[in-house]
Amino acid sequence: MAAKKAKTELQRRAIRYTPDIGDYAVLCFSEEDAEFSIDAVGIILNESSTGCAVCIPATRHLKEGDSFVVQVGKMHPQSATVIWRKELDKDVVKIGIKYDK
User: Fold this and answer.
1) Cβ-count burial of 8 within 10 angstroms (0-12 exposed, 13-18 middle, 19+ buried)?
2) Which of 6, 16, 19, 54 lies most in the core, judged by the most C-beta atoms within 10 Å?
């Protein structure tokens, strides 16, 4: 188990930070050029310069490779991609988000 965790830490390319208290992520599944609308709100678990991990209500949207627009905390909305997804239970999923440059 320790070897698996160590390997994961080595694979990370950016330092992870805890989010500011009260910050959350707002997700918009519409096209990037469309007006930003709230389709889901999630709890930010950790942040980095390249992305973040968020828990959101279970949805058919946001499978690995899906693109969407996200506003994390006080940042401006930006395009992003789901790089991994883990179903925690029937109502909640945890997703890894990578910001598009």
Assistant:
1) exposed
2) 54
d(CA 25, CA 53): 10
* CA 52 – CA 73 distance, rounded (Å): 11
Give me the mean pLDDT over the 11-33 stretch: 84
User: Could you give the dihedral angle defined by the CA atoms of residues 94, 99, 28 and 78, in that order, rounded to the nearest 10 degrees?
Assistant: 150
Q: Where are the domains of the chain?
A: 16-99
Q: According to CATH, what is the number of the domain 16-99?
A: 2.40.10.220
Judge whether residue 11 has pLDDT over 70: no
pTM confidence score:
0.80
